[in-house]
Amino acid sequence: MTHIQSLSHLHGIIPPVVTPLTPEYGVDEASLRRVIQHLLSGGVHGLFLLGSTSEVVFMNRETRREVLRIALDEVAGRVPVLAGVIDPATDRVIEHAQDALAAGADGLVVTAPFYTRTSQAEIIEHFRAVRQAVPLPIMAYDIPVCVQVKLERTTLRQMRREGLIEGLKDSSGDDTNFRLLAQECQDDAEFRLFTGSELMVDTALMIGAHGCVPGLGNVDPAAYVALYDAARREDWRSARQIQERLIRLFAVALQGTPRTSAGASGVGGFKTALKVMGLITHHHMNRPNLPLNSEETGRVAVILKAEGV
Amino acid sequence: MTHIQSLSHLHGIIPPVVTPLTPEYGVDEASLRRVIQHLLSGGVHGLFLLGSTSEVVFMNRETRREVLRIALDEVAGRVPVLAGVIDPATDRVIEHAQDALAAGADGLVVTAPFYTRTSQAEIIEHFRAVRQAVPLPIMAYDIPVCVQVKLERTTLRQMRREGLIEGLKDSSGDDTNFRLLAQECQDDAEFRLFTGSELMVDTALMIGAHGCVPGLGNVDPAAYVALYDAARREDWRSARQIQERLIRLFAVALQGTPRTSAGASGVGGFKTALKVMGLITHHHMNRPNLPLNSEETGRVAVILKAEGV
Amino acid sequence: MTHIQSLSHLHGIIPPVVTPLTPEYGVDEASLRRVIQHLLSGGVHGLFLLGSTSEVVFMNRETRREVLRIALDEVAGRVPVLAGVIDPATDRVIEHAQDALAAGADGLVVTAPFYTRTSQAEIIEHFRAVRQAVPLPIMAYDIPVCVQVKLERTTLRQMRREGLIEGLKDSSGDDTNFRLLAQECQDDAEFRLFTGSELMVDTALMIGAHGCVPGLGNVDPAAYVALYDAARREDWRSARQIQERLIRLFAVALQGTPRTSAGASGVGGFKTALKVMGLITHHHMNRPNLPLNSEETGRVAVILKAEGV
Amino acid sequence: MTHIQSLSHLHGIIPPVVTPLTPEYGVDEASLRRVIQHLLSGGVHGLFLLGSTSEVVFMNRETRREVLRIALDEVAGRVPVLAGVIDPATDRVIEHAQDALAAGADGLVVTAPFYTRTSQAEIIEHFRAVRQAVPLPIMAYDIPVCVQVKLERTTLRQMRREGLIEGLKDSSGDDTNFRLLAQECQDDAEFRLFTGSELMVDTALMIGAHGCVPGLGNVDPAAYVALYDAARREDWRSARQIQERLIRLFAVALQGTPRTSAGASGVGGFKTALKVMGLITHHHMNRPNLPLNSEETGRVAVILKAEGV
């Protein structure tokens, strides 16, 4: 196995890029390229393709490869690109990881297995198998709301000790646990901690996070970058002010419920905002997610205007 | 769209067939054929391939096609064959459904989407899309432990009204709700109700189920068939006696925990029993599930002997 | 400590008696006496006072004593009377148990502690303390929906071995687990198993329950008694027919939601039915439960009429 | 009704005071007085008696009155005293509230009802009834881990609008939701927000909390006060440093599990620390909570020494 690079260069704002679709549910390449340019112009420090926000589990292997091909071509090495390799079990994850390696991704984002319920010992086995199969750095992705199991602190500790993972993306919403992790990892300069709690970025950075993976970063990447910069210079008043505006802007993600699922309201809200902003052509998600209707779209437009986007 | 056949001929014991593996995690064709012969010899009324017990979510599209090819060839039309088409979202499910149609399956078994959280309205949208895409009868599969959402009674009612589903496999463990469903469907001769509560088959049949999908049926299909026959002649004392023996036999599924997950203990226990019985060559599951160790395997052998298998 | 009587004489239908209230939230003695006469006339085999259906946790010590005084006086020894002693922790439970002993109850019904989260070892400690303090037989009450913890099978096994409990009331809704318990206790003639799954009484009796504690038994005790009698003579067709009518009648418990909580809809529905039947004067529950409004009351009356009550 | 005072003077560190016990499970008055002196010497800004940490639900009405009598006497008006009035339902809560008023408490802390499951509308009804019955300011206590229901943001908004509550103690662990609340309440100078997330006090204060209710404050009140002071002068580096030491010290609360419940480990750990520090005579909790054993006590002593307590 070739040498696994660390992720120790990773930091800052790494949005999970949405996947614009054609009416036939194919990848809308032109729109995806515009979104990526929008993010790079906003100053983001990396991109996360094929995450939950990308609707990754809706895509088969071919579509995922296409997304990576377009994204890596458009980024052209300007920032690191992480690729989610999310599917229910080990060997299917390894297939996606091999595709990500072939496409030129800089790192993998790996969840626990799902559908089947898995023990913490089996989760470690899963990461061992991916590590052994594909020489790319791995960010563990803790997202119990989707996979029904938490990556426990003892599990992460064991995986760090074995050298199975180089970082963590924490979308568990358990900020206290995230802090305990950050405190535990303080002496490990190589291990990278990213939060998915996009409404708590200032506090996450204050307690030791290296960055954030904000879905709302698709809509206003520059604001998240400004928040990160304020935090780096320990200007917490400014950081909080920016975060509070982003909380107001996050209302774009809440207009679909309860008519739609929270997921369809959230990712669908980001897509709707990007359409209102003229960046993507269609705002629908993959089936069976219900798209925002015209009334909900109108509310998204009002929120964007109110926050100056 | 061609005419969708009903499932109204389905009844009785329809085991979810395990998938024996080679050491390289490929399908062990000879072992799979032996398991199917064992089930047919036991008198089962149908087979369910590519269900949770088949480790379906661990398999990519090619492996799933291979399983169906082998199974349908081995069955040779003697009993109906249902094919699970289980993956996180609609279009991937439709791909599997098209494969099942091409392979010659008699019906589909469809869960709610998973990983992403989906509303009941979006679940109905999901079934609508599968129905429209593939002309095969559909059995809805209620398995909240895996997909995190219940197929609510109102949802099932709506789907029955729209003609989107022809039956239900209930693996929710909520037997009271199952009974309310059965009572609600009493006048609908076409709609088929199967329980996955394999330790409650006598009572399920008493309250209106048309059959059962027992994982333990891989190990002792004839006993489940005898239980079904006793229930059909309303000989509840015999039915209960057989069920109580099967409960004791079910201990083969409980030997791995807490070292393994419950799933690895259960399906792994069935596989281990089949290996002890000389029907399959290897007892391991797909990665990352931990296989039963030699001590646990010894306990499985003791249980089999005690129950005369 | 005096000798603890067994509960081995307990069987059949033991309704959890509602507590009719005055407008000032006191016990409406005349109405309570009428309800008890109605139950005894229906042929019930025992009464359970101060259970969840009695709104026990809404009452202080004095009110509970008053309920027991009235009930024991009205019953006058004709059937056994169980007293719930339900409060968050051990010493308060013991106070209620002493009151129940003084009042003349025949047995106690004891839940796990609640509010505070308690380990299975601490739950056993709790039952040990109650056992030691008060010489009355104890029925363990498994009701995780209220106390957030299940009485695990290993816990119940340990408590049976130590002689801490004489029976179980299972309101967990986990009918498979109840069956495994029943099978485990088959050789223990003294241990009594009652189900709270009042829509599954025929099947519960078929698999080994000694009786049921049905809230709906307040409304139609004679039907539950007839169901029990049918089950005793193994006339399962009749048992099922009676159960299916009771399922239709159970709709009286579902008219308040989602305006009210399920609890207020259920116990409030029983009370409303009893008021419509002329047995109690007021149908409201203790605060803060919302009472059924006039439209919901109208629907309850329609259901009663449809089922001939 | 007399005028309800606001809680607008409340701020800072308000520990939930433990209740030291005698061997016979009575209140150990001398020890309780020493704990209170220890807290006042540490500079705390208020005291919360009869909270979860006080083992309130284990105590009957008389014992609760005794705790309040001792505490209010010992405090002698030097800081505000809040009294928890925690029991399953409205009228019992009102009884405790009347006792708290009679004892001279400065405010009430009120949870949602528990044991019975209650709708958000019924929760509002509950607070309305308490408000109407007792003229003391009310802090709503959001503790879903104990009462199984969250005080939703819409519920809190409605209760603020109606003037039913003057503040919130948030022990839900959902820090994102707490932040959204804080942002929503920014213009309401009267409404007081306290966090129970005692390992996240610096960040909670940064995003708008007025103070914290830390169980660990029993052990090291001065450190929490120093943390609060650092936050007030926006010295976040110092605040974080103090918080990180307190996280290490919090290990005293984790030594009992999994032998004991988490609750017994936590409150039992605080009590054990106080005993090691010579402040209280006995470290056991009320029944059925298991006390820390000598090995666990030894570990607590080591932790205290390591952190200089």
Structure description:
Four copies of one chain form a homotetramer. The first copy, chain A, has 309 residues and is an alpha/beta fold. The first copy, chain A, is 45% helix and 9% strand. In chain A, α9 runs antiparallel to α10. At the A-B interface, α3, α4, α5 and α11 of A face α3, α4, α5 and α11 of B.
Strand order across the biggest sheet of chain A? 1-8-7-6-5-4-3-2
Q: Roughly what fraction of the amino acids of chain A lie in strands?
A: 5-15%
Query: Helicity level of chain A, as a percent range?
Result: 40-55%
What's the shape of chain A? globular
By DSSP (H or I, 4+ residues per run), the number of helices of chain A equals 12
Number of strands of chain A: 8
Main sheet properties of chain A: 8 strands, parallel
Radius of gyration of chain A: 18 Å
Mean pLDDT of chain A: 97
What sequence of helices (H) and strands (E) makes up the elements of chain A?
EHEHEHEHEHHEHEHEHHHH
Largest inter-chain interface? A-B, 46 and 46 residues
Terminal CA distance of chain A reads: 47 Å
Oligomer: homotetramer
Which class do the helix and strand fractions of chain A yield?
alpha/beta
